[in-house]
């Protein structure tokens, strides 16, 4: 072998476009105790120990992402949130433990083979996958995608919106679950908009948050179309409606909290615990949970 031969890399494999991180999904909950039982005790996630530690809100850490749960009337995401997490056997034991405590709610769970689906006390669906390098890269704990139910005939326009307006690479796929737009909004993170002919519930205000590099470009376009709904501060704005950039046709509503990468919270390290560690089986040095495998060449 020629020692002077240079390795060949697929540089495009590391492109992620303008949206660099899907940081959180926000769904309001009326009961912080049941939220704790579901997200922390049942799913084995970690309540952020530094911010929102009272009863008015709960930030749930999932690797580098979060679910936010402000204390108000329940909101239900029209679709599901996906989580990557190791050790399905341990997860099933935790969910079995909280089952009687959440018996008077909409809580449920089932093993669907490829994933385990857990329903929160108010109807939000969480699909939990085990780590899979072929699908999720080196992510051990995180949010690889959020999927929304959208009307038939909207996937192409939604893909154009993310590609042209947000500058997040998007395409339309036809897979075993049907036709969907997939937008790349972070490293191994997508927003998926799955077409369905089933009735879609009225939008109740839940939202997602992304960080983008070109902060002003999408803002200019959205403002010109009258789509900005909140000028939050220097580092953040919001919009709700997704429209086809070619025709201007309304397609779907989901509030986007858009932040610049100069936002003070950008890349804040999140604490993640090892949910297998208990007082009964305690082993020194195993309190923390890793969110990704070390990079391997």
Descriptive tags:
alpha+beta; 8-stranded mixed beta sheet; 16% helix
Question: Can you characterise this structure?
Answer:
This protein is an alpha+beta fold and 297 residues long. It has one domain: Roll (2,3-Dihydroxybiphenyl 1,2-Dioxygenase, domain 1), CATH 3.10.180. The protein is built from five helices and 16 strands. It has helices at 32-42, 88-98, 133-136, 155-166, 216-224, and strands at residues 19-26, 46-47, 59-62, 65-68, 79-84, 108-111, 116-119, 125-129, 145-151, 170-175, 178-186, 189-196, 207-212, 228-233, 236-243, 250-260. Strands 2-3-4-1-13-16-15-14 form an eight-stranded mixed sheet. An eight-stranded mixed sheet has the order 6-7-8-5-9-12-11-10, with helices on one face. α1 (32-42) packs antiparallel against α2. The radius of gyration is 20 Å and the shape is globular. The mean pLDDT is 95.
